[in-house]
Amino acid sequence: MKRCIWCVAAALAVNVCADDWFIWRGPNANGISSETGWNPESAKKIWTKELGTGYSSVSIKDGKLYTMGHNKGEDTVFCLDAKTGAPIWDYTYDCETGKFKGPRATPVVDGENVYTVSRAGLVICLDVASGKVNWKTDVLSKTGNENNRWGIASSAVVEGDLILLNIGDAGVALNKNTGKVAWKTKGMPSYASPVVFDHKGKRLAAIFSAPGLQIVNAKTGKKIDDLAWETKYNINGADPMMIGDRIFISSGYDRECAMLDFSTGKLKKLWKSEVMKNQFSSSVYIDGYIYGVDGQTKKKGFLRCIDAEDGSEQWNMQIGFGSLIAAGGKLIALGEKGTLYFAEATPKKYSEISQMETGLSQLCWTPPVLANGIVYCRNDKGTLVAIDVGE
């Protein structure tokens, strides 16, 4: 599938490439967009929308934005015009409130369908055009699994005809066309989403569950290998990150990060470091270096750059806790108090381009999204802002 929706040559031969962001962590599921030609120094807020409480990010496809929010015991899936925020359709269903109210997962668009996951493990397949329900499955009851402490946070990961979820101690798969359980495991999940990758002609999935990192066959669920990685409160919230035959994992609560070799089909620890401890904000990898937010919510936190070869720190910048994506060789970080930072993705030093106050204030735990010249940011109260960064 082509990742760029349109590309044009400007008068000065500057390539501009806009990109949809239709799955969790972007078109390549790595927190990086191929979008170019955007200008952080021109950033200006263009619209605001109230969604209800929650932590769901946004997905953008063909001019439509999909996200979720919670209000008075009900979740709502929203479809909005991505440029204006105007409503197109919505779908509401009952959902328990729980601590830290609202959905954690992000809607995922696949063809004519959009897949959502509630904090209670209800997976819903909706028609992208109308919002009509195609099917819904209560995954916890169907697989005999229990919810985790703060609710299911795994976004759906579409792999062929399957949907993969971080439920059970090594994942669960549903048929994406029917919602029926294709394979399952039982045990304690965690909060990261599965990451699918190729290894020696097979499609495998890295699932960061409560016991640690699990590598399974994506089609069958067969266990390939695992690495024990227990964290306080069973929180392994940052997605594993593939770097060729290596896998980077990181957890907060004074755990650590580590680089693992998987070239032989067995997990082997290459190095570990306490420099980058991602509580639940996933890092990004660019040209040999890892950029991420180290630290805990509501405490001192740092945007850091470390060398992927040995974990050594290259620089740090105190921004408090936050989240991070990247595009066009630039970092886009949202601090939990609502400050949006734009910086060069370089290991030499922290090189800020600009920053702006989004007006969101605490708590901003949801990662920003860049799609088609607009950056989208939200807070836990459910205020979504759209910021134009077009040339």
Automatic annotation (TrEMBL):
The keyword Signal applies. Residues 104-316 form the Pyrrolo-quinoline quinone repeat domain. Residues 1-18 form the signal peptide. InterPro entries: PQQ_rpt_dom, Quinoprotein_ADH-like_sf, WD40/YVTN_repeat-like_dom_sf. It holds the Pfam family PQQ_2. It comes from the Bacteria. Keywords: Signal. PANTHER family: CELL SURFACE PROTEIN, OUTER MEMBRANE PROTEIN ASSEMBLY FACTOR BAMB. This is Pyrrolo-quinoline quinone repeat domain-containing protein. It comes from Pontiella sulfatireligans.
